[in-house]
Write a structure and sequence with these properties.
Blueprint: H1 2-24, H2 26-35, E1 41-45, H3 46-51, H4 53-65, H5 67-80, H6 89-95, E2 97-101, E3 120-130, E4 134-140, E5 142-144, E6 154-155, E7 177-179, E8 185-195, E9 209-215, E10 227-241, E11 244-260, H7 272-282, H8 287-292, H9 303-314, E12 319-320, E13 326-327, E14 333-337, H10 343-353, E15 357-361, H11 367-370, E16 372-376, E17 384-388, H12 390-393, E18 398-402, H13 409-412, H14 415-420, E19 423-428, E20 431-436, E21 440-445, H15 458-461, H16 466-469, E22 474-478, H17 484-509, H18 517-524, H19 533-546, E23 550-551, H20 553-568, H21 580-596, E24 601-602, H22 604-621, E25 623-624, E26 629-630, H23 632-636, H24 641-657, E27 663-665, H25 666-675, H26 680-692, E28 696-697, E29 703-706
Parallel strand pairs: 1-2, 9-11, 14-21, 14-22, 15-18, 18-21, 23-24
Antiparallel strand pairs: 3-8, 3-10, 4-6, 4-8, 5-7, 8-9, 10-11, 12-13, 16-17, 19-20, 25-26, 27-29, 28-29
Length: about 700
């Protein structure tokens, strides 16, 4: 009796599935019929199943608990009701893959437990490694070595190869059998390892991994670094060490479907209530003030830096041109400052705000760690594989590199390509690859001598190659000069922050009378961000998704005018103040400025705002006090144009006044140069530079000779 009802239920289930599939997936079956075997997967949306009345909910629950049976039921329904019409229906119905997507609940990799075994789960993570796609045996046909009879197909499972050690049905001898590959069935197979996403980790935890078995048409879909949601059945396999079986089992996910989340900043979910808050915020007249005050509120002052950081978070628009070239939209910024101005604090706060922020520090970062390392792979078959570094993992986010001046020269060179082309090319261990690193780079560095020297040119004090400096859109110089009023305000702010911190900790341990949540909230006001971080993150995500502003003619004119004004400061003898890179930086910043208020247009106010910020930077870094002009040479090559001219003049004078042995009198050289209007101290310094640089010699006191 029981068997009958059980049987009735199974056929019933097939009928239920047939009704559901005919109602919702008729079109997909038509496609599979036409395009088989290129299209051989039916993807069923779990949400559609749930909405299909009471029966749908039953089927959905059954799928989560007994996925193997449900997938069998769906295949039965396809076979029994001929949902795929072709002559070899039987074989086709067997070969069609049933895939389920959009499961309601995700299980974190570290929360997978024994009760999840053989159930349908959904896990999210970043792909760490993938192996090559290789055929795997699924059903094997064997031949008897004595009489040549072939056996019926033997099902093979994941892991170990099953050998038939039984007598041959024809000659009844206990012999070994050989595999007949052309009668056996193979399926494409690939192993993937996913690692949990860094956002969900608590401090000091190592991210956990899960191995995934991917087969058939899902293979080759994803690459390391992709963020995915994997749905499948959790299986276990017994550990065997040196031939002895252990009671411990390893788990792996038998993958049913892959959802690639190409979302980056989009990973942030925004519902209708959030959208209302965001749009309300965008209309706020004090929006720019609020946003810059929501960045690292515990740090006093640094208004301009915070304003620039807010523009970096929103970013410009990355553009793909018809000829295939890529114009970056990310804004790079460098903070160079005296110790103790909270540069690192600022960087850490920004990384916390950005959904894909990665923080590294100079001394502990190598070029391989920033770009990609080639490692010997024990996971697959022992080949060399690439592991993504910090800049690749921060793709579509922000990479913060602290202590950039402490990095080794060779390691710093890895940043050049990542900053301008936004790719990382690797050629090592027989692997040639180009990885994407579309991230904004936020750097912090100390001056060469540890602190700024007021009297030396700033370019001499930034210990970085000029080629790298020119790639930064904004360079802020933060000097720490005593100023009684400002120092008092900073001291007050710091002590207030510490005082509230002490109060909270003390109250937690031994409650203080009269101190309640309201009182603490009031005390925390000076260090509370105007927009709380969760809303701020949603606001940025919303802006990046929906806001692509266009440049208005007036704003464009304003930017061109500023650019030409700077260029016009150059004449034959003066340095060229600004390059086209600075103009591109202006455009990117203007786009970000319009995005801040979700505006569809970049107007004059945006142009004025970015001109003010860029002007501040240029005045600090490239202003040449002697000539009263901007000297980009000073920034780009590290040597002001005036100094280059003087070096050239000294060499010419030595050549012209030297005798036949090439020796010139030092005093005579100085006199000639003084007559040309050069400063005596400068002449002395430059002659010493030539001697130090190995370009000139002083064989005996008072005489010079060029090498």
């Amino acid at each position: 009796m029981d068997d009958d009802t059980g049987g009735a239920q199974i056929t019933d289930r097939a009928a239920d599935w047939q009704k559901f599939l005919k109602k919702h997936y008729r079109k997909e079956f038509g496609e599979i019929t036409r395009e088989y075997p290129h299209k051989r997967s039916l993807t069923i949306d779990y949400r559609t199943l749930e909405k299909w009345g009471k029966k749908g909910l039953e089927l959905a629950d059954e799928l989560l608990k007994t996925p193997g049976k449900v997938i069998g039921d769906v295949k039965d329904a396809i076979k029994q009701y001929n949902l795929i019409f072709t002559k070899d229906d039987e074989e086709k119905a067997e070969r069609v893959n049933i895939r389920f997507i959009n499961l309601p609940k995700k299980v974190a990799v570290r929360d997978i437990r024994s009760h999840h075994m053989n159930t349908f789960i959904s896990a999210e993570g970043i792909i760490r490694k993938t192996t090559e796609v290789r055929p795997r045996l699924t059903s094997a046909v064997f031949r008897c070595l004595q009489c040549g009879k072939t056996t019926a197909p033997y099902k093979q499972y994941y892991g170990r190869f099953q050998d038939p050690y039984r007598p041959c049905t024809q000659c009844e001898r206990q012999t070994k059998m050989e595999l007949v590959p052309n009668l056996s069935t193979f399926v494409d197979s690939e192993k993937i390892r996913i690692q949990e996403t860094p956002e969900g980790l608590r401090g000091g935890e190592q991210p956990q991994t899960l191995d995934v078995d991917v087969t058939d048409d899902l293979t080759g879909m994803v690459a390391p670094g992709d963020r995915v949601i994997l749905n499948g059945i959790l299986r276990s396999i017994q550990r065997v060490s040196q031939g002895t079986k252990s009671t411990l089992f390893d788990i792996y996910l038998e993958c049913n479907s892959i959802e690639v989340s190409e979302k980056e900043f989009e990973e942030v979910e925004i519902d209708e209530a959030d959208e209302e808050v965001i749009l309300e915020l965008a209309r706020d007249p004090d929006l720019y003030y609020k946003i810059s005050h929501s960045i690292a509120p515990t740090i006093f002052g640094n208004e301009e830096v915070k304003e620039a950081i807010s523009l970096i978070l929103f970013g410009g628009i990355a553009k793909e041109m018809p000829d295939g070239s890529h114009l970056r939209g990310d804004i790079h910024m460098l903070l160079v400052g005296d110790p103790g101005i909270a540069k690192s604090q600022m960087l850490r706060y920004v990384v916390k705000l950005s959904p894909r922020g990665i923080y590294t520090s100079g001394k502990s970062s190598t070029s391989a760690g920033l770009t990609a390392t080639a490692v010997k792979d024990e996971f697959g078959d022992g080949r060399w594989t690439l592991e993504a570094g910090a800049l690749v993992l921060a793709d579509m986010g922000i990479a913060a590199i602290d202590e950039m001046d402490k990095m080794a020269k060779e390691d710093r060179s890895a940043l050049h390509e990542a900053m301008e082309q936004q790719t990382i090319s690797v050629a090592k261990a027989g692997i040639t690859a180009t990885l994407r690193s579309r991230c904004a780079l936020l750097g912090a560095a100390n001056p060469k001598m540890g602190r700024f020297d007021e009297f030396a040119p700033i370019a001499d004090q930034i210990n970085m190659p000029p080629s790298l400096l020119s790639r930064f859109d904004l360079i802020f110089i933060l000097t720490d000069k005593p100023n009684p009023q400002l120092d008092r305000a900073i001291a007050d702010h710091i002590l207030k922050s510490h005082g509230v911190g002490e109060l909270i900790e003390h109250h937690r341990k031994t409650p203080i009378e009269g101190v309640d949540d309201e009182y603490i909230k009031k005390e925390l006001e000076p260090v509370t961000p105007d927009i709380d971080p969760a809303t701020f993150r949603k606001y940025i995500a919303y802006s990046k998704r929906n806001c692509f502003p266009l440049l208005k003619p007036e704003a464009k004119e304003k930017l061109i005018e500023y650019y030409l004004n700077l260029r016009s400061l150059a004449d034959a003898n003066k340095p060229v103040p600004v390059t086209a890179r600075q103009l591109e930086a202006l455009i990117r910043l203007a786009e970000a400025s319009a995005r801040v208020r979700l505006s569809p247009e970049i107007d004059v106010s945006d142009s004025e705002r970015v001109i003010r910020i860029v002007d501040t930077c240029l005045r600090q870094v490239a202003y040449d006090a002697q000539t009263g002009t901007f000297d980009i040479d000073k920034l780009v090559t590290g040597i002001p144009k005036q100094r280059k001219d003087l070096l050239r003049s000294i060499k010419e004078v030595i050549r012209s006044t030297a005798d036949e042995t090439g020796i010139a009198q030092r005093d005579q050289v100085k006199e000639t140069l003084l007559a040309q209007g050069y400063n005596q101290d400068d002449i002395e310094r430059r002659i010493e530079d030539l001697k130090r640089g190995g370009e000139a010699l002083e064989p005996r006191k008072g005489v010079l000779r060029l090498l």
